[in-house]
Every structure is written in structure tokens, then in C-alpha cells.
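Help! Submission page says 'invalid entity' but I think these are all valid:
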Amino acid sequence: MNSPKKLNYEVRPVKFTERKMMLAILQRVCGYFGNKYQYIGFGGLTFTDFKLFHKELHVDEMTTIEAGSFSKEKIEFNSPYSFIKIFMEGSTSALNKIDLKKKSLVWLDYDGVLDDYMFDDITLLFSKLPEGSIYVISCNKELKFSETNTEYTTEQFKEKFGSLVPFDLSNEDFSGLNNHKTIRKMLLSHIQKVLKERSGIESELNFHQLFNVIYRENRGANMFTYGGVLGGDNFNPEELSLVDFDFFNPEDNAYKIEMPNLTRKEVELINSKIHLKEKELLEMNVISENDLEKYKKSYKYMPHFYDIRV
Amino acid sequence: MDNQINGNPTKTFFIEMITRDISIKDAILDLLDNSIDGANAINPNDYTGLYIDITVSNDGFKVKDNCGGFTLETAKKYAFRFGRPDEMVHNAGSIGRFGVGMKRALFKMGMNFEVESKTDNDHFQIDVDVSQWKNKKKTVTLDNDDEEQIEIDDWNFEYQLISLETVNLEENGTYIAVSNLKKEVSAIFSDPEFLVELENDIERFLNFSLEKGLIIRLNGKELKKRGVVLFNEQSKPYMYEGIIDGVTVRISAGLSHVGEPKASGWYIYCNDRLVVEENKYEETGWGTSNIPKWHPDYVMFKGVVFLDSEDTIKLPLTTTKKGIDTTSELYKKVLFFMREAMSSVLGFLKEVRKLGSEANDYRKMLGEQEANITVAVLKTANIDEERLFISPEIDLDTIADKKSHVRIAYNVDRELASKAKQHSECSSFKQLGEYTFEYYLKMEELTN
């Protein structure tokens, strides 16, 4: 929650694209479950996700949690809507005070690496959230000590995360190719454990994975976003036809968002040739095949930034 | 009858077995549980006016109470039988349930004992000489063609109605005396440390009854209540209440004073009897799932679980009443809420940890400004907001300041350092360190 200090959220193109992709799926899921959601997130200073979900999903009960070093006055000043409740404390303490028995859309976009308190947050959320609730977590996917930025050894990792650690953890699970898979495994198994214990007390809910995304902001951190929806016995996620979206991902392997580096003229060129005249396009030798592929994956959601006078 | 093999236990073997696994202190607590069950039958909410007198010396042991006593029928059918008959009507809210407690305690301690009970209708006593009882036989006639007569062990006890010379009770209650103590028991009873330990155990384990107004005296000294308290002012404890598998479950967890690290952890009461205390291990969730192992950073955590049932058999108790059967289905469900409570409270304490060197002062400061809520009140208090722990405010500026500053330390040659200190006109090595860092930032144009 300190990253807005480094870069204005609104001009991070990959983050922006991710948000729009999520929105496409959320529109269907929230539509399916009907009724009003409350949104819980880390608004930061720009409240980009708040604005988006208010306007597109019609969520008008919202809570932002702020544990960074901004003053409450600064947060209040930047909050776009008066109905946004502000909690100035860590996520776990704040979640303690929020009514989680309401149907909720929760996006905990932690700016740091995986930490133990994130699992406390999962326990609190999944002990109470009702059917239809959506949980999304984003964090840096590298497995490092948050204080020193040094990578864990398997022993240190087990010491830190205890029984949350996968039984068969090996050194390879820390590599860039696998670290997000390790995180996913830990998150999913903890979520399922909490839900299983809860099923002894009330009717059973299942977690259906919706998001499993990795991306890297231009020269920035390697990020991982994971999330899903809570469904009861009668919920069949296939009814939502989410397979329409190629970034909908119920699988183990993460979907990677990549942005092509293109000029405005190049973008216009691709748009004029896309799908039907791609072979011709590539023969022009202006656009590489790699950039074209990246463009096709994300162009519906990609932002365009222009310099304007304010 | 030639093809029969005698499978009856001998009385000696039986006494050996049931007395082996219990400590003297626990045996005494078992006896006190019977008195408290009596008090509970009189008025479950208030024990004012009721007392238990315990006398321990190297030649005998006595317990006398005015907690209602038990009837001759109870004595005949249950109190003196080994093991509890299936058809027994359970005493609402009682703790004794395996039907071994009193006998086990008496056999454990001595070779002679006497139990006197007075109720509105009965007044009787039972005297037992253990060596005589062990050898007691009776003759029975077998139900076969020959009507063969054989001698078998006689397990019965005999009671007498009270005469003036033997009376020990003026009010309705129970009087138990053990004499001719076993050698090892007599030795334990003459150890002055034992009395201190017993006092300590009774004060902790029976705290709840003490809070309800029961007077317990040990060798004439009145024992004090000593229970758990939670903060309840700026912070509000997590509270849950519900009925799970026929047992009323109430859970509360929150913050408490830093003073006694040992006292941190979970406390579990079954029908008001403390059965688990200061627990910081896996059986109460520590070090499992997202809950960390106990660490001094979590010293302020205290949690209390109340399990109550009129049907004592439903409670997940072990026979020694000193623990919980963690494999029971009920307890697994209870653990779900315990984990939720811990996630809440420990989440807050993890944030306190970030205060670094100021964390301890903050913890102490919290204790000074908070009001306490006792176990007895926790048990009955109304729950305003269920399953929410309200944490006190932390000064985030202090944390932010900690996070945005680091300490750099290194060792250098003293002579060179002195030279640099003189050259830079710094007054201390600390200042020199800061000065050289500033100098580096300036020269490399790294300042903000």
C-alpha cells in the first residue's frame, strides 16, 4: 500500500489491463448472484478500482483499508465518493471490524511479498463470507523476506509459514517459473481448509477459481493475482460461460499478461489488419509476430495514454 | 463348570489400575468436584453460603462441605459402584461422569476411609477398611442342575445409619475422612511445598466456583479466586455463542496483561471446571494452519472456551479431567471458531510487533488504560457483536517511522575513524557515521 508513492496507479498499463480483464469476469459473476455487493479493497490515493467497480458493477458500499504512511486527511481528500469508509490500519485488524457476513467483493492488492498475515486475512474472510462472495489477492510473486529482500531457503520458509507450506516443497518451488504456483497451492489449500472446517457448522461452500494471473509492470515487480468465487451446492460455474474469456483461468498454470511496445501509428496499423490480414501485416516487417500475439491477447483491455494539459 | 475360566478382576488388581494414573492433587480435585456438583444442584448461579473445608496432615485427610450431600439411593445405586451404570440419570451440569472419581481418590490415599452424607431425608455413613474389603468373599449358588455353591469376591460396601457418637455433619452435606494413609501419601502430605501446590491448583482449577461465591478452606486458610481477565474497553474481545452437537459453546478471546507470559494461551472450562489452561500448543490451534507457534510477541493473547452440557457425556473430556479429547467431532467444530478468534487477535499483535523497540511500552500502556472483564462475567455477558474482535488503536505514525528508517552499522579501524572524526569536526563516532553517509549521498547526487 506504499507503492502509490512510487508511481501513480492510473498510469500503470499492465495493472490497468488486469483490472479491465477482471471486470469482464466480475460483471458476469456478480450478475449471476444478483443483489448488491460491498467492496473491500486498498484504495490507495487514486481509488482506481473503487471508481471502476462503482461505475461498472454499481457497487455503492465500499471500504478502503490503508496501512501506509499517508495521513487520514490525505486519504479522505483523495477519496472520490463520500460513501467510502476508511480504515487506517492493517488489513487483519480492519477485516475484524467489517461485517463480512454481507456478500462481498474483496480485492486485497497487497504491494509486498507473501506474508503470514495474508493467511490470517483468508481465515477471517472465509470463516464468514456468504455465497457469491469474491476474493482476490495480488502480491509480489517472489518468495523473499519482506524486510531484507533476500530469498528464503526451504528451511526458513517452513519456519515462517509452518504448516501452510506444501508437504513436498523443494528449492525449485522458489524459482521464477514456479514461485506463483507455490503461492497458489498455499492459498488454495488454506482456503479449502477453512471452508472444510466451516462446513461442520453451516452448509458447505466451495471455492471456484476465477483468476490466476501473472504480469510484470514495465521494469517493475513481478506480480501474481489469484482469486475466485464462493459457491454453494447448486452453483455451477459453467453456466457463466466464462470460457469466452481467454484470461479466465480455473487451471494450475497462470495466465500471463504481456504488453506489446507499440507506437500509436503501429496500433492503428494492427487494428486495420487484425484477424483477417495478419499474414500481410507481418510481411510489412513493421510489427513482430511476438508483439502481434501480445497485442491480440490484451488490446480489448489496454489503456492508451496521451499527454494532455491540465 | 469345568470349562469356565475366571475372568473376574481381582479387587487388588482393580484398585492398582484405577489409582495408578492419577496424582494425589488430581484425586483431591476429584473429591472437590463432587462437592461442587452438590452446590450446583442447589443453585447453579450462586454458591454464596456454601463451603468446603479441606484438612491435610501426615496422618489423615478430611473434606467437609455443606453442599447438599447425596441420598442413600444415590449411594446404593451409583456413588459406590465402580463405573457409572448406563441407566443413571445425569446430574444437570455436573462434572463427575465416569463414576470412578470418589472411589479412586479414597483408594489412592489410605487404607481406611469413612464417608458420611446428610440430606433432608437420609443421614448415613459408610466405613471401609480396605484390607478387609479386599478379602471379603461371598457364597453364591450357581443356577445349574447341582445348585453348586461357590465363593466369589464380594464388592459390596456396607452403610450404617448415623448414631449420635459418629455424627460429623450438622447441615446437609458430605464428610469424608481418610486415615491410615499410605506411606507415600503421608510423605507427600508432610511436604510443605505440597500444600502450596495444592492451594495453587485449587485456586486455578476451581476459580469459577470461587467466583460464584463458594468458600474453600485448606487447613483453615481461605483460598482466593484467581482467574483469567480480558481487556474490555478500547478493545472488545471476540465473542461467539452457539449450540454445537447439544453442547452450549461460548468462546471469547482477546488481549490481557503482559505481566505473566506463562498465563497466555487458551483456557477451556467444561461445566465451569477448568480442564485446559495456559495452552499454547497444537491442541488449541497454535502452530497449525495459519496460526503461528506461540511466541513472546503473542503474550497478550488469552482465550476462554466454555463448554456446557447437562449431559456430561457429550463434553469432550478426558477421564482425568485434565484435558480435552481433541479428536472429538465437537471439539473440531469448536476449533474453527478458536482459529477465527486467534486469526483476529494475533493479526493485531503482529501489527504491534512492527512497533519494534516501542512494542513493549505500547503493550504495557494498553494494560494501564483498559478495563478488565473476568471469566465469570465473560461467561454470562451479553454479546453485542458476534465474532468480531475490536482491536485498540495503534499509532500508525510510529510504525511508519520505523518502517521508513533503517539502522546501518559497521566496524572500522579505530585510528582511521578517529582521524576522520577529527577531520570532519564530528563530536562522536555516531555523528561521523551520519556525516559520512550524508557526504556520500551529496557527492553521488542521491538525495531526494
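Support: the input was valid. A stray whitespace character was the problem, and the output above is from the cleaned input. Residues 259-310 of chain A form one domain.
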